[in-house]
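Checked the freezer inventory, then went back to the computational side. Two predictions to log before the end of the day. The first one is the construct we discussed on Monday; recording sequence and tokens without edits.
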Amino acid sequence: MNEENMEILANIRYMKVTRVIENNVQNHKEEEHVITLTTNGIETSCDTFSLTEVLDISFRDFSQQLGLLYLHTTKGMYSYTVRINPQMFMKKFKEVKEWKKNGTNSL
């Protein structure tokens, strides 16, 4: 993604759980990563999306402690396990999309 004029607007932490088998024993390894919303798009530890590629963001609680944040993109749907409600992140994303659509000078 182009670094020029890129401003970080919001971050949210997500978890990535991998299964590792060692000595015939399955273990779960939990890693914490960050999704970053910038004026140019959304970046995760594995993927980068421009604002035009991200069509929508949604969220689904599946327990009191965890939920899934979904990025609906032109490349498909990507899900991220989050521990907090991402409403503020989603609100900021919608503001940025509207700002880019209308071509206003400031957020």
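The second is the one RB wanted added to the comparison set:
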Amino acid sequence: MIMMMYTLKRSTRKSGHSVITTLPPDVMKKLGIISGDNVEFVIKDNEVELRKAAEKKETVSPEFLKMAEEVLDEYDQAFRGLVDR
């Protein structure tokens, strides 16, 4: 199996308290990412791996969210009164 390897370079620039760079289209395609996706940096010794972040699965059931919304609606005035204290 022949592995193709090539180098792409990008510059960095300051943005607020961060330093940013762009991702080349080839890298985005290879990682299967589009604008707005989350990426993660895995740091191992002196190397950094960039990969698409795993999608977060819904951890709260829709039923629980509906129940919580009903409780918040029911006690809305009481909660507002606590804020004003």
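For RB: The longest helix spans residues 62-74. Helices lie at 25-31, 62-74, 76-83. Let me know if you want it refolded.
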